[in-house]
């Protein structure tokens, strides 16, 4: 009875599933090291605004004239000149480059938001007794996947990978892969239909056909925990997954062996004192090899500790200040397609690391590409990672919570070998309410259950309050109890009535025993718009806003990091000022094409001094 009474009534969090239920059926975490067939390239597409291809009304849409996923050579059918006819032909559709968002590819698709069908034909070698999978790195937002006319799976969530087994459907020779992509967001999607970034519908990251042995390594992870020991987990799948010897080799420095249990799982706990630690200054990565049952997976992994002590963040046991910036997933250029090649990510990270003198990046507001996160490991940038539990969410709905937890699990399983990732965030700017706090609390518990080695944070809202006659900025949010690192977004001097002159004197009252990050602050400026007095949207205003906000930040004693909003101007359909914005959020320190604004220099000087004072 007590348990029943204590259960918060009407709270989605009360029915949160356990971490293990959230593990996807297949992960193929070592996918990048396997032989695979990259299905990038030219695909055909067909718009389907009324979703006819999915919701065929029997008898009405006679003989499925509109079902794009059928394994059908329409031209050959037409040549036979029967009474049948079709109102699609995926073989003769227009072409589009995959990966990439349709919004950037075709002018008439700029603001298309709905269902689009994509098709790619490919040849595959004959089956060899092993297994075959399709691994999608990201499809935004829902995917309906068909191979050779058969549905092989669905996925919801625009930024996380999913793996579908095709062993029994794949043909030796010609294959027809059809993917329905629905970009529509609603009140129960994550994020919902209101955000401050572009729609970017499509197959936005690579798709690969991967073959494995009949019993194979599905998951292989290794990470350093706070006490310096290296813990790991390997999971096999297949008939012979139980009782196998698994070997892990970390470069030439350490090897360890363990046996899989009945479920195919082996765990490692390795003392490796000779390992060189990974850090932004010295991003050392080891070649790691996992072997079991004749299968091998390789990865490049760095080892470091991350912890909080009092109000300090400790990297490898030493206090660190996070000199960061926020980033959306968009390449430089006037018409980004959200196609993050290594080159595109490298260009952005070079601006952060060698331009701004940064050591940290907030990858907002969703998991960025695997390419990007791997590059952070290689170049030495600490990472804040988040899923788009952003602004409004249907907090009371258990199905929505389940989606959020699953998305978070997919992210953590994907990235837990990345030393760069130190912070998992459970939300951004969500208005405080009991249901919302329970939802985020369940997310924080989920993170700790899957990955107890990293820190938990969330980007919170601040409030202004009068205390003893003083105007103070405070965090009034019960979620702070669930977080290792407090983070707040603050826009005084941009939104609201504060003048820039007033900013340095604003008083902050925040918990003394916890590190604090300013996860966002920023102001719009149109690159090249200058010398018009201290007006909003000028480069001078943005630069002065940065000077004054940094002066304010310096007076917060527990401040341990910054990720101002944002490195680069980014597309946002809600920003429609016809002179300054035209569909772009202009808070970038550089323009969309990479032209540095005056404020870029202000933040660079600040970080250069910070780097000196903590060296
Ligand atoms: C915020 C949001 C971010 C917006 C930004 C803005 O607080 O977290 O997604 O783009 O403000 O520019 O207003």
TrEMBL record:
| Domain called Glycoside hydrolase family 2 catalytic: residue spans | 306-554
Segment forming the signal sequence: 1-13
Where the record annotates domain Glycosyl hydrolases family 2 sugar binding, the positions are: 102-213
Enzyme Commission number(s) of this protein: 3.2.1.31
Q: Which Pfam families match?
A: Glyco_hydro_2, Glyco_hydro_2_C, Glyco_hydro_2_N
Keywords annotated in UniProt = Glycosidase, Hydrolase, Signal
Q: So what family is this one in?
A: Belongs to the glycosyl hydrolase 2 family.
Please state what the protein is called.
Answer: Beta-glucuronidase
Native organism is Pseudoduganella lutea
């Amino acid at each position: 009875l007590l348990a029943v009474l204590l259960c918060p009534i009407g709270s989605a969090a009360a029915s949160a599933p356990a971490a293990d239920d959230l593990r996807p059926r297949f992960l193929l975490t070592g996918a990048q090291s396997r032989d695979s067939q990259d299905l990038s390239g030219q695909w055909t597409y067909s718009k389907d605004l009324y979703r006819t291809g999915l919701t065929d009304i029997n008898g009405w849409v006679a003989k499925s004239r509109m079902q794009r996923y059928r394994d059908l050579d329409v031209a050959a059918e037409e040549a036979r000149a029967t009474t049948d006819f079709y109102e699609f032909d995926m073989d003769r559709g227009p072409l589009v480059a995959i990966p990439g968002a349709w919004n950037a590819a075709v002018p008439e698709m700029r603001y298309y938001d709905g269902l689009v069908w994509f098709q790619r034909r490919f040849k595959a070698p004959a089956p060899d007794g092993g297994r075959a999978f399709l691994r999608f790195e990201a499809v935004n937002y829902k995917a309906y996947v068909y191979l050779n006319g058969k549905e092989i799976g669905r996925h919801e969530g625009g930024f996380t990978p999913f793996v579908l087994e095709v062993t029994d459907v794949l043909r030796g020779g010609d294959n027809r892969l059809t993917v329905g992509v629905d970009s529509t967001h609603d009140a129960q999607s994550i994020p919902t239909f209101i955000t401050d970034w572009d729609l970017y519908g499509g197959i936005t990251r690579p798709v690969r056909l991967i073959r494995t042995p009949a019993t194979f390594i599905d998951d292989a992870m290794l990470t350093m925990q706070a006490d310096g020991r290296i813990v790991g987990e390997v999971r096999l799948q297949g008939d012979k997954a139980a009782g196998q010897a698994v070997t892990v080799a970390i470069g030439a420095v350490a090897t360890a062996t363990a046996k899989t249990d009945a479920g195919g799982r082996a765990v490692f706990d390795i003392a490796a004192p000779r390992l060189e630690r990974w850090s932004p200054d010295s991003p050392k990565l080891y070649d790691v090899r996992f072997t079991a049952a004749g299968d091998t997976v390789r990865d490049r992994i760095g080892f470091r500790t991350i912890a909080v002590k009092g109000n300090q963040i400790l990297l490898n046991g030493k206090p660190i200040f996070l000199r960061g910036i926020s980033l959306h997933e968009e390449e430089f250029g006037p018409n980004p397609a959200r196609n993050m090649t290594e080159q595109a990510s490298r260009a952005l990270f070079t601006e952060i690391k060698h331009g701004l003198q940064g050591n940290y990046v907030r990858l907002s507001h969703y998991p960025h590409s695997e390419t990007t996160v791997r590059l952070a490991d290689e170049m030495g940038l600490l990472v804040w990672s988040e899923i788009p539990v952003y602004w409004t969410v249907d907090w009371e709905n258990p199905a929505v919570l389940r989606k959020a937890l699953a998305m978070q699990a997919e992210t953590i399983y994907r990235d837990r070998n990345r030393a760069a990732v130190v912070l998992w965030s459970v939300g951004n700017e969500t208005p405080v309410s009991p249901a919302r706090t329970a939802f985020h609390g369940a997310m924080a518990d989920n993170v700790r259950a899957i990955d107890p080695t990293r820190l938990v944070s969330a980007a919170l809202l601040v409030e202004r309050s009068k205390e003893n006659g003083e105007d103070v900025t405070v965090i009034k949010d019960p979620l702070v109890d669930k977080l290792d690192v407090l983070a707040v977004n603050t826009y005084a001097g941009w939104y609201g009535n504060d003048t820039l002159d007033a900013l340095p004197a604003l008083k902050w009252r925040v918990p003394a025993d916890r590190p604090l990050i300013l996860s966002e602050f920023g102001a719009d400026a149109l690159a090249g718009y200058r010398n018009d007095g201290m007006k909003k949207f000028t480069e001078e205003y943005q630069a002065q806003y940065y000077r004054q906000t940094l002066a304010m930040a310096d007076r917060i004693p527990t401040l341990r990091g910054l990720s101002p909003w944002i490195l680069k101007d980014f597309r946002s359909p809600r920003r429609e000022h016809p002179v300054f914005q035209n569909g772009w959020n202009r808070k970038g320190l550089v323009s969309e094409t990479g032209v540095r604004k005056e404020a870029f220099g202000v933040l660079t000087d600040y970080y250069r001094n910070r780097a000196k004072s903590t060296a």
